[in-house]
Amino acid sequence: MSHEGGARTVRPWLAAALAALGVAEALITVVGVLVTGLSFAAARDSFLISNATIGTVCALCGGLIAAYRPRNALGWLLLGVAVAQTATAAVTPWLARAIVAGDPRAVTWTATVYSAAWPWAVGLFLPLALLVFPDGRLPGRARWLLVPVVANGVAQVLAFSADPYPLAPVAGFAPGQVAPAWSVLAIRGVDVGVPAAITNAVLAATYLAGVVTLVVRYRRGDERTRQQVLWPLLAAVVVVVVIAGTRAVWSVAAPGTGFPVISTLAVALVPVAITIAVLRYRLLDIRLLWSRAVTYLVLTAALVATYVAVVEVVTRLLGPADGLASSVAATVVVAAAFNPFRVRLQRRVDTLFYGDRSDPVRAVASVTEHLATGADRPRDVLPAVCQALRLPWAALAVDGEPAGEAGARPALVEVFPLRHAGRTVGELRVGVRSGQARLDPSDRAVLELMALPIGVALHADTLSAAVQRSRQEIVAAREEERRRLRRDLHDGLASVLTGVAFQADTVVTLADADDRTRIAELGEDIRSGVTGALADVRRLINELHPSALHELGLVEAVRRHAQRLTRGDPAPLAFALVQDADGEVGELPAAVEVAAYRILVEALTNVARHARATRAEVDIRCTDGELVVGVRDDGPGDGAGWTAGVGLASMRERAEELGGLLCAAPTPTGGRVEARLPLARVAA
């Protein structure tokens, strides 16, 4: 078995053994209290209840983390806290009994365990847990802290071991009431006041460094790390508020009676929060917990402070006898200030965790401003969407295909359609925050508002991309047409003219020899070649711009083409120009004229080939800044011949290239093709 495999086998058993040791020490504590008859007040003031509770919770939490995440040092550090805290709790009843009984040997050993066990938890294991949270590894820049933290942990043990009265907070065990209980580790005859103050200051700095490390991890971490960090931070805030609040109230309600030790039970929330963060950080919406907890903790503290301050002021003004007046005045002030203060405080806290969802105008304005100033493409606004609502992920999709994203995609995603002019142009997809099953209605309302400017921007971007593609296609088509013309000129006209040149040289040579017969033959060949070259040139010129349009105009050119179609034998198709537009159409832009001619020629050709019609009517007119051209026939109207093919596609492309529309469909009385080509847009 490899060392790694052996370690994997040993770790679960070791974790279970350490957790069982912590729980066993807690049970020994209970037995010791029952056997020695230690009073509840003594158990409370000697930190026995707090140490036993915190140690038991750390044993359970550390055991879970070490079992499921054995490579994470947090589980093992919490197990260290458990063993150290509960060891102190386990010997507390026996230390009290030994001091009362005056047994020097028992006092020495119980005082040694009492003073040397719990400082390891407070001075070493907990600070390290804060520094390595949540992955169990020290950040690269914080590794230098390991040496001073370990050294200060040892110093803490020595400092507390030098205290000759470890149970001084317990009534009847203060200095002068009992004999000193010296630890084996105590250095007697040396004033440890200054070293103790120094080590306590270093300990405070260590905890501060741990909190700073958590804040840095939150700011630089991904969505998962931020979710994890919020759990112990919330527990720490609750602990601080509970301990400080109870101490403040205690000092007012029972001045001079000391510190309310029982409030330290709140520390047990920290290992619970660490365990949830490591194993199930998505258990609840931690942001919502933060929002509500911080709001009501701060609100409660502020109202209590206000109440105490008003009572104090009124008592000083009216005298201590009028307690009812001071209470009534304080109640009125607190009642009047409660709701406005709560609303403002809740808004501030919600903004911290949920962004501007309580202020839709501000949220939409931030996105709109980003679109107007800093976003070259719609997808560039996605980070602003995430920031505005503190969302983990946002993305755009067009026709079901991704068009950009920001953040890390979570398991749950909600989709918002992006519309422009009543038409869906894309989708805005956003990730649901960890711990939430769905977005809050206020989130949805803000995102629906954001979808409006994003939809407009996405539509504009789509149009811009389409224009760019059209430009590229136009350039490609132009170059392709130039290549074809070059090939035709090279293979046709250039070859013919080269041959004509050689034949002309031969004619000159034969003329010198007076070979009239051969000269006549070459003359015929030259005439035939030149005639063919002229035909090729006319064909190319006609393809570039129909010569009939140049010579006759649109209406007459269409009439000539229709007459050619109706001269067949037999000639079943009769042609009619419904509206003779001579003098009404006037001069047209070249592009419109060519497109109209090509569409009408193709439509008439289709009628002659496929419509089984006896009559075709052509309509050409200008109306409302458009040239309207159409062909109607009296075919059977059963849809035969209307399958989309090259001809229909070509007509539609010619119309759309100019920003126009083409309608082609069978009718109950035959078939109809109509194109509307704008004049002003092309002329501009």
List the helices and strands and how they pair.
Elements: H1 3-36, H2 40-45, H3 48-68, H4 73-101, H5 104-132, H6 146-161, H7 193-220, H8 223-253, H9 269-279, H10 286-318, H11 323-354, H12 360-373, H13 382-389, E1 393-398, E2 401-407, E3 413-420, E4 423-431, H14 441-513, H15 516-544, H16 547-552, H17 554-565, E5 574-577, H18 590-610, E6 615-623, E7 626-633, H19 646-657, E8 661-667, E9 670-678, H20 680-683
Helix pairs in contact: 1-3, 1-4, 3-4, 3-9, 4-5, 5-6, 5-7, 6-7, 7-8, 8-9, 8-10, 10-11, 12-13, 12-14, 14-15, 17-18, 18-19
Structural features, described:
The protein has helices at residues 3-36, 40-45, 48-68, 73-101, 104-132, 146-161, 193-220, 223-253, 269-279, 286-318, 323-354, 360-373, 382-389, 441-513, 516-544, 547-552, 554-565, 590-610, 646-657, 680-683, and strands spanning 393-398, 401-407, 413-420, 423-431, 574-577, 615-623, 626-633, 661-667, 670-678. The protein is an alpha+beta fold and 684 residues long. The protein has 5 domains: 3-283, Rhopdopsin 7-helix transmembrane proteins, CATH 1.20.1070; 286-353, no CATH class; 360-469, GAF domain (Beta-Lactamase, 2-Layer Sandwich), CATH 3.30.450.40; 476-544; 551-683, Histidine kinase-like ATPase, C-terminal domain (Heat Shock Protein 90), CATH 3.30.565.
